[in-house]
Write a structure and sequence with these properties.
The protein has 12 helices and 13 strands. The protein is an alpha/beta fold. A 7-stranded mixed sheet has the order 2-1-3-4-5-12-11, sandwiched between helices. A 4-stranded parallel sheet has the order 7-6-8-9, sandwiched between helices. Helix 5 packs parallel to helix 6 and helix 7 packs across helix 8.
Amino acid sequence: MVHWKKRLSIGWLLITVLILAACEEKDPVVQVHKEEEESLPDVVKIGFSMDTLEEERWVRDRDLFKKAVEDLGAEVEIMEARGNDALQVLQAETLISQGIDVLVIVPYNAEAAAAIVQKAHRAGIKVVSYDRLVKNADIDLYVSFDNERVGELQARAIKELVPEGKYVYIGGADTDYNAHLMKKGVFSVLNSPIDLGDITVAYDQWTDNWLPGNAYSNMKEALKANHNDIDAVIAANDATAGMALKAMEEEGLKGKIPIAGQDAELAAAQRIVQGTQTMTVYKPIDTLAREAASLAIALAKDEYIDTDKKINNGKIEVPSVLLEPIAVDRDNLDSTIIADGFHSREDVYR
């Protein structure tokens, strides 16, 4: 009886072993599928933290960057801080918590954004400064146009028309390092005639937060301080140029004083055709967006980025990719912004 029970126990044990073995035979198939899933390349996720979408050009940047990233097979999450330091930090923290691989940032405040870079790096996330440079931070890469060159192109165009006289400079936001770079470029051209006494800077002021309304107030103040006796205006971008023109129009000076802007906004192109704005600086944003998208993905994959240019941001020499801007006036408007499809001929000439 005992032997019978023993044989029965052994039998059940063999059956159990066979069942387990059968299960084990199926497991490798399951494991193969798991390995295949694990071997699939991870999709790169990019966070894009933007200062504002108030101006036409930044809406273009957002759309073009998104398309460029997706065309390269990656994903992007975009947040806009509406010109608010605290909100941009909060949004960046949200993007970091979502498991992004790279953070691309257009800083509202070049100094305050350093905290965002620190937070990203603590999470093992690399940071690309897009078009505007973050100050005093260990930025991994800066992708922009040569902003000093932008200022140079503005100043040279206006100086050629007005080699002597009173100049008004309407700068960008003091918190934007690009505004400082552009101003540096402007005065690298103007300093010599200023020293010779040929050119006098009758007014020089920043435009708080890049708000066109503040540029309007600046221009009103410049006109009042100089009893409308000015000869040339250089504005940091087309939006500020437009409001400076509004202030001049109210004094009967529209179209009588050369004025420079930048960004090649549609309204600026139309003003160039009308003869009320002298020139703008065209920065092919499509090129910038595609370049930034490609480089951000390369950073995420730890690929080597070959650039011999560096920009000092107050803390380090930041590896930089700087694209060339283009001066646009009535003579080459058709062959630049219209030929590139940046604006249609119908829209520009109305």
